[in-house]
Amino acid sequence: MNAGFSSLRLPIVTYMNIILAFDSFKGCMTSDEANAAALSALRPYFPNDDFISLPLSDGGEGWLTAYRRAVGGHLVPVATHDPMMRRITAQYLRQGDMAVIEVAQASGLALLQPEERNPMRATSYGTGEIMARAMLDGCREFVIGLGGTATSDAGIGMIRALIDALAPSGRFDDIEMIHQCRFTLASDVTNPLCGERGAAQVFAPQKGADAAMVRVLDERARRFAEVSARHFGYDRSQEAGAGAAGGLGYAMMQYMNATCRSGARLLLQAVGLSRLLPVTRFILTGEGASDAQTLMGKLPQILLSEAQNSHSPVPVYLFAGQVSARERLLAAGFADVRAITPVEQSRTEALKSDVAQRNLRAAVADWGTLSQ
Fold first, then answer.
1. Coiled-coil annotation: which residues (predicted)?
2. pLDDT, tens only, 261-319
3. Where do the structural domains in the chain lie, given as residue ranges?
4. Which long-range contacts (CB under 8 A, 24 or more apart) does 290-297 make?
5. What are the DSSP calls for 114-148, one per residue?
6. pTM, 2 dp
């Protein structure tokens, strides 16, 4: 059979699969680009196997694209606002009564210029507008990818948008539609809302916050959680995932009874990985930088876990722009761990898209030669 990209909804087959399941290399390669680079390098070495490319995301940028490839559906345009309340058009994915939402579509850091980054001003209002539109369209099942946001407002903007669109009384408690919906959050973040590991202290500096802003943001989130806890009679601010997407995770769990799951695991379930593993020779995966944090629920670690728990364990090979803690990664079960960036190459050069793809092709081809 000729090697090539296969449909994700495949019948059970008798030939062997080679699964390419790269995360995006932030700043230089999308998941699809990394998969394609690996495919072009491996094709000559495994001419009789079928290459299956799985575009993946942990819930951040690329979540809609990856989920659409997995389950189909159609994209619905929504007039909304970016983190600075400028009018933009975003999208959500609809499949039956299910809406798949990528919060980065309206609240993403990529929507701002570097000099515009300011989590004291950035709002999640636009994400609320997308959610409200999907509810009004009849959607009742929500799968929401958290990640890549410019915001650290604990979801206050999102809640305000839902009230504006769905509660003429101005009270969130009067939005009956919320109680008809089920919300599943996709994220690899396990941080709580507040404190040393909270949304502000861990993630706000990446969004333009200085030390003083971090203190204010953390205190603002803490006060909001205290008021919310008194109103509802329970507090979900310390639960795993509450700190995701600048606290959007908390707001959705506290106000909408959302459940938080690994984005990577949700997507792998949607594409039917467990069905593919029994006839898979090996898996290639990768990310921009692999280190000890990779083993804390990031996409390659989730893939490794699924492959190891298969009836016949499948070897997983990890390629990354940079690698540290290699011995820990190998001890965790990766069959091999390789850095694709030549030691003499500057970071600026390595982050160029064409250079990153060339580096990945070279690294995978070198591994393919040795695997024969």
1. none
2. 988 889 899 888 999 999 999 999 999 999 988 887 788 999 999 999 888 899 999 99
3. 17-57+272-370, 63-261
4. 290/318, 290/320, 290/322, 290/323, 290/324, 290/325, 290/329, 290/337, 291/323, 291/324, 291/325, 292/324, 292/325, 292/328, 294/318, 294/329, 295/328, 295/329, 295/332, 296/190, 297/188, 297/190, 297/262, 297/264
5. GGG--TTT---HHHHHHHHHHHHTT--EEEEE--S
6. 0.84
